[in-house]
Amino acid sequence: MSHQFKAPNRRQVIKAAGAAVAVSSVGYWSGLAAAQSKSPNEKLNLACIGTANRALDNIKEVLHENIVALCDVDKNYLDQRLGQFKEARPYRDYRELIDKEGDKIDAVVVAVADHHHAPATVRASKAGKHVYCEKPLSHTVGEARLVAKLAKEKGLATQMGTQIHAGENYRRVVEMIQSGAIGDVHEVHVWIGKAWGGGDLPTETEKAPEYLDWNLWLGPAAERPFAKGRYHPAQWRRWWAFGSGTLGDMGCHYMDLPFWALELTHPTTIESEGPPVHAETAPEGMVARYEFPARGNKPPVKLTWYDGNMIPKTLYEQKMPGAGVLFVGSTGMMFADYDKYRFFPTEKFSGYKPPAPTIPRSIGHHKEWLKACRDGSPTTCNFQYSGGLSESVLLGTVAYRVGKKLQWDAEQLKATNAPEADKMINKSYRAGWEVS
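and the corresponding structure tokens:
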């Protein structure tokens, strides 16, 4: 079942307005489009693109629905899932799945390598399917903008796989920052010691195993020989052709917190540093510095990202763990990660009492999306929010690869001082895989 956006009549608007308290306009409009999709007790018909590793974790979250189609370029993975979902229709090519399934499916879950995120999501969105897509939302900045635009135009229920956004700790941190616990925040540091980088192109040509459709795995990317253990199933993240290194992998998780708490949107400048740029692979450590403009009465913010072997051991004379976020405000500092927070200087906040919770507890990251597919309720990581987050994350890698401070025009999707960045903001696709 699929529903395109229809302009609401006056009665629908009035009815929806009563239920729209504290809901963004984006959630409201997408809600009206999806409201007729399913009754609360009727199961959704889902197609899962990707069936192993991170994709399997997503399948576990939605298996109580009707999983009617499965897709994977790796036959071994696909066969494992077909043993579990015996009635599901199998596909190797998600283009064929989306084109053939038509009104047999309501929504798709996209959990494949990053270079496939936008091609699969755009095709599903044009077919009017609700979409859950893993992070980052796309492989390029231009794709992120397109994916968000399509979702809004089609009125689809969407969610990006930033699962920690549903956690209670993030909610409490957002409330404390927004209540002024450390004053006006003008600086943020975000880091993780993970390293997806390094490596050179394989020198030997190998034949792909029979169970793997290598041509389909490459998809929109330029042709290259298969190399065992270098790309599939996990090492693709370190290659620019398929992923975006550590920043692309983890930026949406950790930068999500300051984006949410400080209501950030688009940076005005981005500058990155690290080892000499490798044409094929991401670095084993890098630093990206973003400048965000003032938002209403909130001051401009400088956000610095660190990863791999370039993370800080201390910040403001405070020893820091291997991953986290440090907010620097006019009256103090606050550290946070997925499940805890603390203030600095410690003695100043010894009697601090957090504000009463105002952000409702999440029903669950995947459950939010499934509910939205049925009744049009808002999701907290919809593609309008997560699209902007993904754009900023990916701009850090563009600045690193270009090697200069980018002056960013978000409206035009242009680095005004670096036309050489255009080929990374948007990219070319193999015939049959174009995204537009």
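(Above: one complete record from the training split.) The chain has two domains: 10-165+363-386, 168-197+239-360+391-425.
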